[in-house]
Amino acid sequence: MSTLKLFLLIRWAWFQKSSQKADEYLREIKEQNVLGDAVRQCVEAAAHEYDPDTQKALMRVRSPEPEPEPQNHPITEAASFGKCFLTEFSPDQFVTTCRELRVLNAVRESSVGMPLTHTQFKQMTLQVLIDRLVYRQFYPLAIEVCRYLKIPDYQGVSRVLKHWASCKVQQKDLTDEAIARAVCAKVGDSPGVSYSDVAAKAYECGRPELAIKLLDFEARSGEQVPLLLKMKRSQLALSKAVESGDTDLVYTVVTYLKNEMNRGDFFMTLRNQPVALSLYRQFCKLQEPQTLKDLFNQDDDHQELGNFYVTSSYRDKRLEGRLAQLQSAVDEYNKAKNDFAAKATEEEMRLLRFQRKLDDEKGAGLLGLSLQATMEALMSLGLHKQAEQLYRDFRVPDKRYWWLKLTSLAEKEQWEELEKFSKSKKSPIGYLAFVEVCMKNNNRHEAKKYVSKVTPEQKVKAHLAVGDLEGAADAAIERRNESEMGAVLSRCSASDRLLMDKLNRARVATAKK
Amino acid sequence: MAHSARRDSPELPDLSLLKRLVRDQLIYLLEQLPGKKDLFIDSDLMSPLDRIANVSTLKQHEVDKLYKVEHKPIVSISDQICFLIRPRIQTVKWICDVVNADKAAGKFRRYKIIFTPQKFYACEAVLEEQGVFGDVTTDEWAFYLLPLDEDIISLELPEFFRDNFLAGDQRWVRTAGSALHLLHSLFGPFSKVYGIGRCSKMTYESWREQVEQGEQKARHAEIGNVFLIDRDVDFVTPLCSQVVYEGLVDDIFRIKCGCVEFGPEVTSSDKSIKVMLNSQDKVFNEIRNEHFSNVFGFLSQKARNLQTAYDKRRGMDIQQMKTFVSEELKGLKQEHRLLSLHISASESIMKKKTKQDFQELLKTEHCLLEGFEIRECISFIEEHINRQVSMIESLRLLCLLSVTENGLLPKDFKSLKAQYLQSYGADHLLTFSNLRQLGLLVEQQPGETLTVMESKVGKLVNDRTAVKLTDAFSSLAKKSHFRALSKKLNLVPKSDEEYDLRVPRDMAYIFSGAYIPLSCKIIEQVLERDSWTGLEEVTRLINGHEFAVTGADPKSKSDAQRIILVMFLGGCTFSEISALRFLGKERGYKFIVVTTAITNSSRLLEALLDNNV
């Protein structure tokens, strides 16, 4: 087919001279349906040419589609012929070759000096070409090439910039400040250039100050952490890790610090970083309770120390150990000025001692019960005296004690005791409670005893509770209370005709007034 | 409620996609360890796992035996063991013990740990410390989100609440961010994100970071707006007794992972029955959002309808009968079965809840919410404690009192706590310490004038200095400011009007018309205004780190703009979900609730107990 190529070239020459024969030749080729191939071959041939003029000549035979950036370059100027003769010819090959040729011509310049053939270029790929340019520090050209060939930033410009920056930081004659500024100005926020990588390079070259400056440009705080750790800037690393919001990273730094620093410094560092501190506390709670204590100690956090002792008191099986722990808790609570907690803990200690004593004496099995549960247990064992002692010693509210005793006696069906108790003094919980509790334990007879003692407001309720409708009705009528009458009515059944009439009459009478 | 509904509600996106994705990933992970293997599963992952892949699916992928992680020596004889766990230090330590025990016994096995939803460095550190790092392989199963229903997604991380709000441990924030990121990449891009609370802010930031790192695909949004809210913005709502059916069922029977186990008292046999509670259950779907007082009416109506459907059989010829049996009967029977279950569940609830005590309890709660007859409430609580009605309930009332009243008077504070300790043991000192830290149970500061001054300052100069001043004040003590918020947002409807619970007029119906949940009210207000403007006073009182960010430009006024994802960080209650569903119906929105876990008053408070250490 080389004849064809020649053909075209000749034709080109003819055309140049405006010969009328040119047209004829071309038509001849076209008729053979080989024009496409001919054009393709010409373009290919151009690619392998070194001399720009020949390239131009070969390219010009090619079709006439809009060329890339027409005016700027000699090669493109050359490209324009045969357009009128060829329709439906894809311009891709032509465009690519044009671009590649421009790049090849550029690197063949003597100032660069890379006499690559087109085949070599294809073989080694564009990536490698850029790499070579970068290694020879032709950064501007490399960037130019990337942009011209429209390589995605990530693989192209950014990569070059990264190399450039890594090289820049090694320039010994410039100050840290100047380099940092220069890097920032060029790199800006190009995607894919990691300031932390550049900083790592600076650090490798023995310029830690520069590294720190560069790290400041790193937007993702998490990225800064590994290098900072390597540079032993652990405090900064910790605060950057916290800033990143990535707890795993925080934890990595904390573990690192724990092994690097002495304990005192480590705690001090944590103290300024609440996020890291709470993370470490969580870890200690599960892994090293003793460390947790030291942490609180260091902070003079007496409240937490108190809580710590209380918690550990429950782990201690022996009573002596438990009491000792609680005593420490009391001391800490006092230091924390938490009187309430101190007092409550002291009472707990007193209760424990009391329970121990009774367990020893009577085998009551009380240890560890709450005050209420202890009193309940004592009462059900019939140890009322001891229960009463607790009631006084621990200033148990009257109401609680009365409820407790009431239910306990009723449950054990000690009705006489109950009656005695009810008369011991005026009940702080009223007498309706007595009625209800007796009923709950299925003793209507006893319940009735207390109905008369109930306050007038609760009379109706009390009568109803024992099922005494008449009594309830009388009480409600006496009190002239409509809603109470209604309540009684709602409990009446058909057999209570008389009572219902009575109530209805009273209701009407009340309503009139 | 159907009559008040707008008819143009948008369609919800299909959340079951989430399930399919994680199932495929799990299978892939299991196949990474070819051959027969035993699988050990963290006990709280059992139910979530069951929703994703059942036992036969696991068996298909050569899982031989299934065990629950019990922190005891293991009995497995398989030479390959796979652990499927949450990234918790205790569990990893236990695995180390297992591995080391095998080593000591000269047994060789292959171990693989699958952390879900992610692994933490702390866990790997433990592996390293215990010298088994080289013996196990680790992987992550990105099981962030479990759709419990067509509009509820749970992260199933109950510990989120305690870790984040009590211990100040932010390890789960990134998890929440990743969960949001997943939703964004499947159903986004979101056009607007609102949020309130510190954790919300951090979650938002974590999510943004992940968006920036990944590539973005332009796609058609299915969810338009997102609202993030911290649980500590509103503690009042989860502390109230729930009276909407689904909430009540949760309070009483504890719904676990969308499934409830009705005990013998409901099934009236000696067996328990597990029932899935979601919109698939036609009966449940109609009553779940109803106030309990309406439920019986609904159920009996339903029963009558069902009877009519059955009655159709009479007078049918053979052909009709055949169609009836093949087409309708099965559905009717299913419905019948569910109906009778829900009826007995309601009866069981009635038995427990219509007693005098419960009525009084509710009355006390309403008084507290209204700030009315507080002394009576305190004596009620005192009696509650003294008579040892219930450890958690008493604690709940104490907290509700403190939160609504902005702390207790020093005298009451001491005496109530002392009585509580007498009832339930001194170890609750630790519980009190936790509650105080969270601001749930606090003493009124002697300088209560601060609040007065604060609000005055706030009114006079609503500028930066005021904000700074407030910050300074609020750092003194965590305060709830419930009263002020309630007034500002009209949370407590006037009690003199009759409230018809069958035809609710606002979200207050979920609490018998006594209180509009603060969390939902905030959401309503922000959506209405399309911003936080006009709510400055409210956010100041909450001290809330509020934000609103406009993201992808909504191309058209599409349906997606009316689908709102609400993410509760620290848990939300079924009552809140019901309230949002109501709001959605009223305004033509659809809400999808994402929560770190479903919570209620008991779960909230149990998470804060410390007597089990």
TrEMBL record, chain A:
It is found in: Lysosome membrane. Its main location: membrane. It is a peripheral membrane protein. Residues 1-19 form the signal peptide. One of its GO terms (biological process) is vacuole fusion, non-autophagic. Belongs to the VPS16 family. Residues 15-95 form the Vps16 N-terminal domain. Residues 193-506 form the Vps16 C-terminal domain. GO terms for cellular component: endosome membrane; HOPS complex; lysosomal membrane. Residues 316-343 form a coiled coil. Core component of at least two putative endosomal tethering complexes, the homotypic fusion and vacuole protein sorting (HOPS) complex and the class C core vacuole/endosome tethering (CORVET) complex. Their common core is composed of the class C Vps proteins VPS11, VPS16, VPS18 and VPS33A, which in HOPS further associates with VPS39 and VPS41 and in CORVET with VPS8 and TGFBRAP1. Interacts with RAB5C. Interacts with STX17, MON1B. Associates with adapter protein complex 3 (AP-3) and clathrin:AP-3 complexes. The keyword RNA-binding does not apply. GO terms for molecular function: actin binding. This is Vacuolar protein sorting-associated protein 16 homolog. PANTHER family: VACUOLAR PROTEIN SORTING VPS16, VACUOLAR PROTEIN SORTING-ASSOCIATED PROTEIN 16 HOMOLOG. Keywords: Coiled coil, Signal. Pfam families: Vps16_C, Vps16_N.
